[in-house]
Amino acid sequence: MRVLAFALLAAGVVAAAWVVRKTRNPRFSALFAAKPTRRIEIVEQAIVDPKRRLLLIRRDGIEHLIMTGGPVDIVIESGIDGPQPGSSSLAIERASQSTRPPHLLGEAAE
Fold it and tell me: How far is CA 70 from its chain centroid?
C-alpha cells in the first residue's frame, strides 16, 4: 500500500513538472531562471558621526560618493571611475594616502 502511494505521489510530481514545463508559466519558470546581474552595490562606507555616513556606491561601473543621514541626503561626487581591472591595490592605497591628486602621482614635482 505504501509503495503504491509513493508511486502515485512521484507520478503526480512528474506530471506537474511536465505541465509547468510545457505551459511555460512565467510565475513558475521565474523560480528557476538565472538571476539578473547586479547593477548596483555599496563599495565602501564610513561613519562620519552617529547620524551621518558616507557611502561609495557603484552603478554600472561608475562610482558615486553620497552622504546620508543628515537633514538632506547629498551627492558629494558623481561619475567617479572605478578601479581598473589589473590595477594593484598598492597603487590605489598610495593614491589614497597622497596629498596630490591621483592624476598627478606619476608626474614629476614641478
Answer: 25
User: Does the predicted TM-score (pTM) go above 0.70?
Assistant: no
What's the CA gap between 46 and 53, in Å, rounded?
6
pLDDT tens for residues 32-48? 677 788 899 999 999 99
d(CA 3, CA 90): 65
Which residues in 42-56 are b (16+ Cβ under 10 Å) and which e?
Answer: eeeeeeeeeeeeebb
Q: 67 has which bridge partners? A: 54, 74
**Could you give the CA distance from residue 64 to residue 42 in angstroms, rounded to a whole number?**
10
Contact between 75 and 65 (Cβ < 8 Å): yes
